[in-house]
Amino acid sequence: EEVKEIQHHFKLDDRIAKDLDVALKKRSDSFDDDVKALWEILEGARNPAGLLRVKLREMDDGSFRGGGQPAKDVEEMAKKFNLDAQAAVKLAEVLGRREDRKKDVRQLTKHLELSNKPSSLVMLMLKDLRAGNPIKDPEYPAAVGSYAHKRGLKRRSRSRDRSDRRRRRDSDSDDSSSPPTDAQILRSTGAGPKPGSGNGEPRPMTLLERFG
Fold first, then answer.
1. For 205, what's the count of Cα atoms within 13 Å in the CB-facing half-sphere?
2. For the chain, counts of helices (H) and of strands (E)
3. Which of 73, 91, 99, 180: disulfide with 184, CB 3.0–4.6 Å?
C-alpha cells in the first residue's frame, strides 16, 4: 500500500514501483523509516523517478540512510571540517535529494577545505543545492585558518625542519673535515712547547735549581 501511494503521488511507472517494493521488503527492519525518508527525499525532486533509482542503488549497496540518520560521507565531512550539528543535518537532507551524491561530496570538499567558516559556507550553499544547481570548482584562495591553510603551514614547518637538520649535518661535516691548525700539528709531533710554558721558550730555572 505504501509503495502504491508513492507511485501514484510521484507518477512512477510500474517497473520502478516493483523494484521499490522488492527493495523495501529486503529492509523490513527499517521499512517505516525508509518510506518516510523516501517521501521527504522525493518531494522536492525535479525528477522523482531518476532520484528514486539512485536511492534504490543506495539501498542495494547499503549506503541508504532513513530516519534522518546522517550518511557516512556527511559524518566524515562534519568531523573533518568541524561542522556544527545544524549544518551537518541540513547538508545530509539536501544531499539525499541530489542525483550525483559522490560528485557533490567531492566538490563540496574542495570548497570546505578553503573556508575558515565551513558551517556558514554550507548554509550559504544550501539554496543552490536545493535548486539542483551543479557545484562549480572554487575560484578563491584558501582563507587564513582554513583546513588547506593549516595543512600548508604544517608542510612548510616540516620542510623547514628538514632544511635545518640538513644544514646542521653539513656544518658538522665541515667541522670534522677542516685542516688541523699549526698548534695542533706541533702538539701531535712533540715539537710544541712544554706544558706550562705559554710562549714556547724554555722555562727559567729557579734559584734552587741554579745553585743547589
1. 6
2. 11, 0
3. 180
- Burial (CB count <10 Å: 0-12, 13-18, 19+), residue 25: exposed
Residues in the chain: 212
For residues 99 and 54, is the Cβ–Cβ distance under 8 A?
Answer: yes
C-alpha cell at 139: 575560484
Angle at 70 between CA 66 and CA 72, to 5 degrees: 110
Asked if residues 54 and 101 have their Cβ atoms less than 8 Å apart, the reply is yes
SS3 content of the chain, % helix, strand, coil (to 5): 70, 0, 30
Nearest to 29 by CA among 68, 56, 67: 67
Cα torsion at 55, 57, 58, 61 (round to 10°)? 160
Taking the C-alpha atoms of residue 166 and residue 174, their distance in angstroms, rounded to an integer, is 12
What is the rounded distance in angstroms from the CA atom of residue 43 to the CA atom of residue 52?
Answer: 11
pTM: 0.51
* Residue 116, C-alpha cell as written in the block: 575558515
How is residue 133 written as a grid cell? 544547481
Main-chain phi, psi angles of 12, to 5 degrees: -90, 150
